[in-house]
Specification:
Number of domains: 4
Strand order of the largest sheet: 18-19-21-22-23-24-25-26
CATH class of the largest domain: Alpha Beta
CATH superfamily of the largest domain: EAL domain
Number of helices: 26
Number of strands: 26
Largest sheet: 8 strands, mixed, barrel
Helix content: 40-55%
Strand content: 15-25%
CATH topology of the largest domain: TIM Barrel
CATH architecture of the largest domain: Alpha-Beta Barrel
Bound molecules: ligand C2E, calcium ion
């Protein structure tokens, strides 16, 4: 025995000399040893054997020996020579390669491996499925030769290569061409794999076909900005245009006016002639209004029988007044609804920027006050907003002072609204919603004070209180054995921006002892837009703790689902405005929700429908496999004590199991 053999076997020569060679085999492998068989039969052998070290652990070795026996001087057989080497490392590498190969083939993303010259060495099945090229066709070509669509310029590829040179990584969207000639967008990520000397050995490309996702996005984008009934801009688009117009007016010194219109007694027409006639009337009204406007004005339907007009550059109040009186007069002519003549009038409220409000929200609010006054004055009229209409600033000041003491005086209350599983009809979790029990004004809804708390910074204190209270409540429910699995807490953008936010959350989790998996934080898209990098890092940290992240009011912001997909997000809450659209025959709202649900599921996100009010909405949402349903249909938000009395707490009522 040589030294190397001693080392590998963990025994010295003295111990082994004279013993049977079988002692170095793993006992259970002795009988199957190829070497022993070879010795008996008298031929030489090379193969893998499992050997045993002194401590008892086994290792694979390539074993060579046998053949003709060694003879002594008088040609008497003395024995055999054998040698072996440890192949543990090779074994591990092979196992790793096997795993890698199966990942490679099973990946749903297409993968290419190219050499340093950029020529493809191998591709996987998904590559062939997406591009239509087999591995044989792809081998030896560069991805550009094979798939190039000619739609990107030199500069695009120069930037890609310089990024690969510097960072060894590039990712982005690129348009490629399939074998069939069809172009398609893909999300491509390329990594340069380097050897120890820093030279590129391989380029690994991973991509997925995102054409379906893009179509759905474009579709959602259109639906999200237009009113399906009249084809007019919706509230979102109106707000967009208003904001743009305000910043232009600000620079150009022009004035800008918004008019809010509300049809007088529309409801009675709807009730007496039916919804179909109501829809026709709304369409006819929007046509007549459009005919009175200049190019550049925006006409929008904000919902129901409410319209809005944006007049971007007017020189005086008189311009707006002129248009308003033309509108009021134009309603003196009847509307023709499939042969039936209908009369209706409209009331108009007008607010002018910048005098009546420095931001969109205030401007709209004041136009609404003016509209209310126009109705009050007997309808079929228009009114401008007057400063004296507003008691706002005083009330604001009072509330602000009171709010600063609300937590200290124990005036805040948390209400809870169930989120019901669409599959079982049973409550799965709850959303916590804050209320303020004001000493003189009664129970105030968050709309009255959250904005105020945001602008004064008090939201930090308030938010902390809400989170803490909700976590405590959750722990209590669990102790009581109630099957409430999750509590969702709203987090305002300002809280998220605070660098200490993460620390505060962790502290409360620890303090209350809540299982982090039972906690969900609701954030709006706008809070992500502020500082995407910070948001990303906070989300990731929360996720690591097991805390779930929900995007609130989805569909009212700017981002798309595929944008969200780059963030660690667990839940998408589809905004109530889309759920409202599921009435009668409004096919568009349905397709939109369906698209969101399908996309969310592809991205492994859950969906929650907000503001479910009717059995019909519930029915359709169940059919579309929206995961959780929340709304007055099940329950209004209520105190914890009332929550546990709700039927959806336990009952498997007449809910369909899908
Ligand atoms: P949100 O997060 O979108 O909450 C849902 C709102 O819709 C709640 O109003 C809820 O009562 C209402 N709602 C639920 N189902 C229905 C329905 O079927 N029909 C109708 N018409 N409404 C429904 P709420 O409680 O007045 O809250 C308003 C907003 O105030 C919340 O909107 C949220 O943005 C904010 N808010 C509430 N609590 C907190 C809080 O603790 N912290 C922060 N930062 N914001 C909060
Ligand atoms: Ca919410
Ligand atoms: Ca919401």
């Amino acid at each position: 025995m040589n030294q190397r053999a001693e080392m590998l076997l963990g025994r010295n020569e003295k111990e082994l000399l004279g013993t049977n060679v079988d002692t170095i085999w793993l006992p259970e492998n002795v009988d199957s040893s190829g070497f022993r068989a070879a010795l008996r039969a008298g031929y030489s052998y090379e193969g893998e054997e499992w050997l045993q070290r002194s401590g008892g652990d086994a290792f694979p070795a390539v074993f060579m020996g046998g053949g003709l026996p060694r003879l002594d001087d008088s040609d008497v057989a003395q024995g055999y020579v054998a040698s072996f080497r440890d192949v543990t490392v090779q074994h591990q590498d092979e196992a790793r390669l096997r795993v890698a190969a199966s990942v490679f083939e099973n990946l749903s993303e297409a993968m290419t491996i190219a050499g340093p010259d950029g020529r493809i060495q191998s591709v996987n099945l998904a590559f062939t499925e997406i591009t239509g090229y087999s591995e044989a066709e792809a081998k030896g070509k560069t991805p550009g030769e094979l798939l190039g669509s000619g739609l990107h310029d030199q500069e695009f590829f120069r930037a890609m290569w310089s990024c690969l040179d510097n960072d060894r990584h590039w990712q982005g969207e690129i348009i490629n061409r399939r074998k069939s000639g069809e172009t398609y967008p893909e999300w491509l990520s390329i990594t340069a794999v380097c050897n120890e000397d820093g030279n590129v050995e391989q380029f690994i490309g991973l991509f997925s076909d995102i054409s379906e996702r893009k179509q759905a996005e474009a579709y959602i984008h259109h639906l999200a900005y237009h009113d399906p009934l009249t084809g007019l801009a919706n509230r979102l688009l109106f707000n967009d245009r208003l904001n743009t117009a305000m910043s232009q007016a600000h620079r150009s010194q022009y004035l800008l006016a918004i008019m809010l219109l509300d049809l007088d007694h529309f409801k009675s027409i709807n009730d007496s002639l039916g919804h179909h006639a109501g829809d026709l009337l709304l369409a006819a009204v929007s046509q007549r209004l459009a005919g009175l406007l200049r190019e550049g004005d925006t006409l929008a339907r904000l919902g129901g029988d409410e319209f809005a007009v944006l007049l971007p550059d007017i020189t005086s109040h008189a311009d707006a007044a002129m248009l308003a009186s033309r509108v009021v007069l134009s309603f003196e002519k009847p509307f023709n609804l499939e042969g039936r003549e209908v009369f209706i009038s409209t009331s108009i409220g007008i607010a002018v920027y910048p005098a009546d409000g420095e931001n969109a929200e205030l401007l709209l609010k004041n136009a609404d006050v003016a509209l209310y006054n126009a109705k009050d004055a007997g309808r079929a009229a228009f009114r401008f907003f007057l400063e004296s209409d507003s008691t706002d600033s005083l009330e604001r000041l009072e509330l602000e002072t009171d709010l600063r003491r609300a937590v200290m005086r124990d005036e805040l209350r948390l209400y809870y609204q169930p989120q019901v599983s669409s599959r079982t009809g049973v409550m799965y979790g709850v959303e916590a919603l804050v209320r303020w029990q004001h000493p003189t004004r009664g129970l105030l809804m968050p709309d009255r004070f959250i904005g105020l708390a945001e602008s004064t910074g008090y939201i930090e204190v308030l938010g902390r209180w809400c989170l803490e209270t909700a976590c405590q409540q959750m722990v209590e429910w669990q102790k009581a054995g109630l099957p409430i699995r999750r509590v969702a807490v709203n987090v305002s953008p300002r809280q998220l921006r605070n660098p200490d936010f993460m620390e505060m959350v962790l502290e409360i989790v620890k303090e209350t002892g809540i299982n982090p998996n039972c906690l969900e934080l609701e954030l709006t898209e706008s809070s992500m837009a502020d500082d995407p990098e910070h948001t990303f890092s906070v989300f990731s940290q929360l996720r690591q703790q097991g805390i779930r992240i929900a995007i609130d009011d989805f569909g009212t912001g700017y981002s798309s689902l595929s944008y969200l997909a780059r963030y660690p997000v667990d839940v998408v809450k589809i905004d109530k405005s889309f759920i409202d659209g599921i009435v009668g025959s409004e096919q568009n709202s349905l397709s939109l929700i369906q698209a969101v649900v399908l996309m969310a599921h592809t991205l492994s996100m859950e969906t929650v429908a907000e503001g479910v009010e009717t059995a019909e909405q519930r029915q359709k949402l169940i059919a579309m496999q929206c995961d959780l349903l929340q709304g007055y249909f099940y329950s209004r938000p209520c105190p914890a004590a009332a929550l546990i009395e709700l039927p959806c707490m336990t009952e498997h009522n007449e809910h369909e199991i899908r």
